[in-house]
Amino acid sequence: MLPGCTQKECRRIHQRGFGVLEVLISLALSVVILAATAKIYVAFKKSYRVQQALSYIQESGRHAIQVLVADTRNARYLGQIHAYWNITEAAQPHSIPAISGECFTQATMQYRWINPFTTSIDHDKNSTTPNVFAPQIAGTNDEIGPFAGCIPRSELAARTDVLTIHRVSPKPVLAAELVSRGVYIRSDLNHALEFSCETSGATCLPAGTWDKETDAIYPLTALLYWVRICTNPGIDKLCGTSDDIDQPNVPALMRTRLRETGKIETDTVSSGVVNFQVEYGIDDDDVGYPQVYLSANAVGNLNDSSSWNRWQHVRTVRFSVIVRSDVREAEYQGPNSFQIGDHVGDAAIDVTPNYRHLLFSNTVSLRNFTG
User: Fold this and answer.
1) Strands, E, within the chain: which ranges?
2) Which tens digit of pLDDT belongs to each residue from 57-86?
3) What phi and psi, each to the nearest 5 degrees, are found at residue 105?
């Protein structure tokens, strides 16, 4: 016990609490600590969102370029044969049927998207080597062009290019693996035949004489790349004002393709792609490398066979895509326009403010040159 106090009085002294001043000081210190903690939390959260946005952009952009490069590099690959004018279409019942969603039709185009090898143009006048045949890689510049049959006009992003590619699948199939309604090319070193199956299995093979050593069957692959104004169009399958989760209308790079089942389907390649531009490296003089890069319109109109020979002189393809984040950042002030493709100077592509954007580019050399 303390001297001069009873046991009861000493207990009271030991049990005495904080005074008002002490409580106020403690509260003040707590507020300072909480404010500092909140500031650190907000900073970390902002940093996390920035890193998340950049990661999303990098992933989408790299994937878009990777898929484009893989498909474009093998454009014009037709298996065993290398002379396109030796490709013919099989007769009934193996001829190519009408398929829902075709990009081109024989009625309006000089060749069909799923059958570009048989055209209304005379390839072989006077039984000599032809100088006109349909291009296996081509496109349009900032417009839908002849692709309205498989791209809804209202869903194509403004001022974006369209790219079309034809090739066969790199892996041949056995006759027993053929499926009904599928479109195939059977080829050897001397000639090739495009046909469709009316039944499954080997019974759908059209008659013909083939070199046993080089005879092979490949599914025909027709591809179309374009930018849709939304990634997820919703239940109605049409882009509206708020289809995408959390953010309205996140654009995406799309791929419309002829599947091995004979159906034409569209799938998403990369979400966040707001613009897609293509330039074609032309080797008019057959010197072995491109002498100039041109937009699709400068190369020629796909619906005009007089431009087809120019398309066959494409040696390289240069892609450029602008990718944006999927989350709006009110405080972010980034570039509002990009110089991309043939859009330079006053024609630069404007982008939506308060979103992070990055530009990705790549140039691909075509393995199969037909010029």
Assistant:
1) 87-89, 137-140, 162-168, 183-187, 192-196, 216-228, 252-258, 264-271, 273-282, 292-294, 314-324, 337-338, 349-350, 357-365
2) 899 999 999 999 999 998 988 887 766 666
3) -125, 155
Burial of 173 (0-12, 13-18, 19+ CB in 10 A): middle
The candidate with the shortest Cα–Cα distance to 89, out of 112, 116, 118, 60, is 118
Please count the residues of the chain: 371
How many other CB atoms sit within 10 Å of the CB of residue 349?
22
Here the tokens at position 262 are: 């004979």
Pair type for strands 192-196 and 87-89: parallel
Query: At 367, is the pLDDT very low, low, confident or very high (cuts 50, 70, 90)?
Result: confident
Tokens of 299: 């190369």
Contact 137, 166 (CB under 8 A): yes
| 177-222 per-position pLDDT tens digit | 999 999 999 988 888 889 999 899 999 998 888 888 889 999 999 9
pLDDT, tens digit, 9 for 90 and up, residues 1-27? 546 666 655 555 555 556 677 777 777
Closest-CA residue to 312 (of 125, 65, 133): 133
Q: Give the tokens for residue 324.
A: 């944006």
d(CA 55, CA 18): 52
Longest distance between any two alpha carbons in the chain, whole Å: 133
* Residue entry with tokens 């500092």: 36
Which one-letter DSSP state was computed for residue 70? H
> CA–CA separation, 219 vs 260, rounded Å?
6
Instruction: Say which DSSP state 333 is in.
Output: -
Positive/negative CA dihedral, 126, 127, 129, 133 = positive
DSSP for 127-141, please give it. GS--S----SEEEES
Question: Could you tell me the residue ranges of all domains in the chain?
Answer: 45-365
